[in-house]
Amino acid sequence: MTRDMRPPAPPPSAPTTGHGLSAPFTKACDQPLCGPAGEPDFAAIQASPEFTRLRRRLRLFVFPMSALFFCWYLTFALLSAYGHEFMRRKAVGEINVGTLFGLLQFLSTIMIVVTYARFAKKRLDPQVDRIREQVRADAEVGRK
Amino acid sequence: MMVPIAAGTTGSPTLNVTVFVAFVCITLYVVYRASGSSPTASDYYAAGSGFSGMQNGIALSGDFLSAASFLGISGAIAVHGYDGFLYSVGWLVAWLVALLLIGERLRNTGRFTVGDVMAFRMKQRPVRAAAANATLVITFFYMLAQMAGAGGLIALLLNVHSKGGQALVITAVGIVMVFYVLVGGMKGTTWVQIIKATLLLLCVTFISVFILGKFGFSLSGLLGHAAQNSPLGERLLEPGGWYGQNAMSKLDFVSLSLSLVLGISSLPHVLMRFYTVPDAKEARRSVVWCSWSMFTFYLGILIVGYAATALVGPDKILAAPGGENSAAPLLAFRIGGAVLLGVVSAVAFATILAVVAGLTLAASASFAHDVYANVLRHGKADPRSEVRVARLTAIVIGFLAIIGGIVANGQNVAFLVSLALALAASANLSTMLYSLYWKRFNTTGTLWSIYGGLVSGLLLIAFSPAMSGTPTSIVKGVDFHWFPLTNPGIVSIPLSFLCGFLGTVLSKQPADPDKQAEMEVRALTGIGAKH
């Protein structure tokens, strides 16, 4: 099932070709990210190094983290179904391993939420702003 | 504490009704104030994208603090113990799928419906039609669950025992709900959700802190009392009280867990909420807010459920009108008397009202935006006529919900919801993930994964023991089941992933690279996104 959570991803750095944009002598970062009328050129943005970096950064965080919480949750579910002996052991007073395991799921979920929120704010948002800034700048140039 | 009331465990019906009517009046006023004079399509479907992350987060949790989670799960914990607890764990963990994989990307890519995202880079008409079909089926199952809860609740609160009387009240509820949707659209519905979620969170927090105090702030002490008071004894606290009888029921349990964790972020009415905020950052903030309120709520529900076993007792719960679903209201009566019961019941009732309103909105949006505007009118519909169609659809759906509620009256609502979740995860999750993250994914793949998941899910439910062959089945007297599990998730969810993959690989048409570039850039950065 974890495999299903991660659809076969294209190689993150593969540039899109066949749009007549990757002229052989210009580097990817020098291409204008907007068309002549100032409309964003999505193929060029997708091929730009800043966008490639954003995508890699996002995927490197989001896919492993999803796999992690999914496996961790599945462990809990499978143990609840098939590991009765283990789950019914008393841990603290009347609280058994199963209940403790469930409460740990609560804790881990909140921890992942907080970690992702922080990661997105520090590592994704500035990168998105950078790309948007580039596109805006190129749009101004395009209009002139 | 015990006010002598003729109705016994049901408190004072007059008081219950008064609190509830007060809630309806206040929310109707809010809905009326929130609605503009002539709403655009964006106002009607997405509240003009004008809500903040915090507001939408609370409304999102409101969508999930439904009758199913409040009444169904507290009842399941009270009667079955640990296996009921699994529901709440699954429903909390599930938000991570929305947070990490879907929410922000969906906000950036689409405008009003799930179909917007699925059809973004595919052939519009067949994919939109498929997305709308999936939305309508999923929403119908989910709505059935909510309306079934309404029936049980009415029985308990108003002491209405005759089926005819209950049907009458379900009808009244349905009419008020349609009114919310028609007058308030998404903005009104969201405000109702915010008010309701806040009330429900306060209620559950108050009750659980009070109960913990009663047991000397010792969870262990509470669990001990609950086990003593349950016919299951110690087994109440252990896995297997509900699903542990044999190998098949254990597999069923795993299937259920899968549906719970993968289903939530695939529900159309939940996904649609992401469009009510201005951008992806606010969408993220809404899931963070939502996760915190779900965290608090489900910890509270764990305590409420076990406390209902300890203080009310499963025998009394099962004997009450409304059965399992009446655990939380009975506990409220036990600790706070008729007043607290009135408040809790009114909130639970409001919950059903608000969630069904949200469902109606999602279904009508899907029909008007995907089917009417894009399939029938080829994307050239006048926005005004689109809103008119949406409103008409809302009336039709409201009518169907009333009929469905009368028919499904009495089923365990958490269980019915789990079927809806299995369908949602089967039809939508694979399609959304492939569409957002897999470059090669194409129209054939999209159609295969939507229909593969939806049809296999529906067939397996139709031939499952949930439908026929056991004493608790929906259809009684005949036995045509051959699929051994009540929840189809473990088969239909992987199958939809497989279908999407095979459909893409086997078809000759390549994906449209320009649209793919546009979708990916838009999903990740919001460049070109509609606000």
From TrEMBL, chain A:
Keywords from the UniProt entry: Membrane, Transmembrane, Transmembrane helix
Coiled coil regions, renumbered to chain: none
Annotated stretches, region: Disordered: 1-21
Residue ranges crossing the lipid bilayer per the database entry: 60-83, 95-117
Listed PANTHER family: INTEGRAL MEMBRANE PROTEIN-RELATED (PTHR38441), MEMBRANE PROTEIN (PTHR38441:SF1)
Name the UniProt record assigns to this protein: Membrane protein
